[in-house]
Amino acid sequence: MPAGGGLLCGASGLALLLAATATHFWLQRRVPGGTASLGLWRTCLGGHCRPHPGTPALWEATRVLMLLSVLTATTGLALELSIVASAARRARARVAGVTLLLAGLLALLGLGVYTAGTLSLLGPARTAWRFSWSYILGWVSVVLIGSAGLFHLCAAAKDPSPESSEVAGA
User: Fold this and answer.
1) Mind listing the pLDDT tens digit for each residue in 27-43?
2) Rounded to whole angstroms, how far apart are CA atoms 35 and 44?
3) Residue 29 three-state SS
């Protein structure tokens, strides 16, 4: 059954991707009276959070890519769960694998755009800021979701069952 490792990696990767996208600890720095943090959706200073006053286009692109990644990973996870109940396991495993690889690629692009954009936007002040745990969760989710996709593609290639979708299409 191909669902074991792929399902575990896919589910945990999706959970981390959701946490990374929703939280506001992508960048942090120490300031008098506490810490300041920046996320995709809001800025926090000393425990008081507010939406970004003006969002650069690169951060908007990151938001879109991360949301598309969440939606694609959710679709891939739903396909993973449907493998057990389906006669066309090989085809569904392939589609789940490709979908999860696409989700990982979208998150990778989003994190890459955020990294490049943030370093250029902060300029010389970037030495005071540090990438924080939400950002790191995003990178870990890329690895987990990409691994889930590869696990499913490998499982589909090694599945000895006849492909019922090929019989139905003939």
Assistant:
1) 998 888 788 898 899 98
2) 8
3) strand
> How far from chain centre, in Å, is Cα 10?
10
In the DSSP assignment, the letter for residue 104 is H
> pTM of the full predicted structure?
0.86
Q: Residue 163's pLDDT is what?
A: 55
Cβ(49)–Cβ(90) under 8 Å?
no
What are the distances in angstroms from CA 117 to CA 13, 26, 60, 126, 137?
24, 13, 11, 11, 19
pLDDT at 23 over 80: yes
CA atoms of 41 and 59, how far apart (whole Å): 9
Q: List the beta bridge partners of residue 34.
A: 31
Average pLDDT (135-142) is 96
133-136 own/partner pairs: CB under 8 Å, 24+ apart: 133/25, 134/19, 134/20, 134/23, 134/24, 134/25, 134/26, 134/39, 135/20, 135/25, 135/26, 135/27, 135/111
51's enclosing H/E stretch is strand 48-51
- Report the distance separating Cα 88 and Cα 34, nearest Å: 55
